[in-house]
Amino acid sequence: MTAELLTRLRKELETERASLVEDLRGYGADPDSEKVARIQGIDDNFADSAAATAERSEMLALIDNARERLAEVDEALLRMDEGTYGECAECGKPIPEARLEARALSVRCVECAAKRS
Fold it and tell me: 54, 56, 14, 53: which is closest to 38 by C-alpha?
């Protein structure tokens, strides 16, 4: 992989990481732990408890998705630091640059990814 591509992908991942951290904080979630503050804008009024529960569940799902994506981004950045970014986690072969450009979080080559689906 070229140094230019690696630099560009790192910048994209770092930008995405910053955005995810900002999103989590906006949701009232601590990006560095499992803590979630009281979710703003959800009325816990007893008469609307079903609606509040649904809204809370939706917000918690957004938080879970953002945390999962953040973990993937952090793993990719760690692989870059360790010099293993772009190597398939299953077979060790290089992941094609085109695949990494399309999905910078790829950890498997196309063949190994296809086996898992």
Answer: 56
The amino acid present at 40, given as its one-letter code, is: Q
Domain boundaries, the chain: 3-85, 86-117
Tell me how crowded residue 77 is: count the other CB atoms within 10 A of its CB: 17
Amino acid, res. 68: E
Distance, in Å, from the CA atom of 43 to the CA atom of 103, rounded to the nearest integer, reads: 39
Q: Which two tokens stand for residue 67?
A: 């945390």
Tens digits of per-residue pLDDT, 40-97?
Answer: 555 555 556 666 677 778 888 999 999 999 999 999 999 999 999 999 999 999 999 9
Instruction: From 29, 93, 102, 30, select the one nearest 60 (Cα to Cα).
Output: 29
Q: What is the pTM of this model?
A: 0.82
- How many whole angstroms separate alpha carbon 19 and alpha carbon 70? 9
Nearest CA-CA partner of 88 in 78, 77, 99: 99
